[in-house]
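[scheduler] slot 2 assigned
[scheduler] job type: sequence-to-structure, two independent chains
[scheduler] chain ordering preserved from manifest
[runner] begin chain α
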Amino acid sequence: MEKWRCTICGYEYDPENGDPDGGIAPGTPFEKIPDDWKCPVCGASKDQFEKA
């Protein structure tokens, strides 16, 4: 699974870790994250991410 990086703050979403605080379970690919999910660091929308 590919990692994705926030173009605003540089946070990297790693599917192996997920985002437990944001309700995203470990093992969740970026494509399966709900569209209303926000970057846990800066609050940027999902469309502000690019493949790392």
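[runner] end chain α
[runner] begin chain β
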Amino acid sequence: MGVSERWYRSLEAGDSVSLSSEILGRLSQALVLGPDERMVLYSRALDGAGLALTDEQDAAEGQLALLHMVTAQTGFPAYLTDGCWNILGYNTLMSTWFPWVLEPGANLMRWALTEPGAREQMLDWRRHAEVYLAMLRFALATGGSRKASLDVLLQQVLEDPECRRLWAQGPKVVAFRQGHRYRLALPHVSPEQITVTSQVLLPAYQHGLRCVMLLPQKTVLPPCALIPEQQSGGPAE
């Protein structure tokens, strides 16, 4: 583990010792712990304040699977972000509705809070901005290794006077925007306003990643979404 004899003696004696995420990671490797065992270790050692990630290979394979799931969606916009809201992947509808995702280094939070186009497309932008800033505040408080990147993102956001004013209003925090409703003005997609509800999926063992799907208010489910009994009118074979 790369710890000193004094640290180990203190541990065996039941004295207080440093149990940073780095030390816990080395301990997990030394004991060849699986992801579920790591979660228990981190939860016990940090009083539930942190979770262990899978190793790099498993994480990469998991991310590829998530990208495939997102890009395979055809009925609604879908995208994948990391813990700093960097866009990792998106489907065709997402890039059609929001072409900014095609730009190198696209970041949802930066676009939503600083780009003039976001204020035109998201109706009632100020209310949305308050929630986005509360999410950013939550991420900064729990960001761990991502804090440096989140600090840079915050500075970029606070260069905007309106965002700076909203940020100074109070310490509100929001973890996720599950089930939030948006009214969108996207004339290149529809002459009428589009209302969508965001569904946020948090993949197991992929701490920090978010799969987000924007479900339109008026949606017709494809026939394949029905269970066999509904399709045939009789019991499933």
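[runner] end chain β
[qc] chain β: The radius of gyration is 22 Å.
[scheduler] slot 2 released
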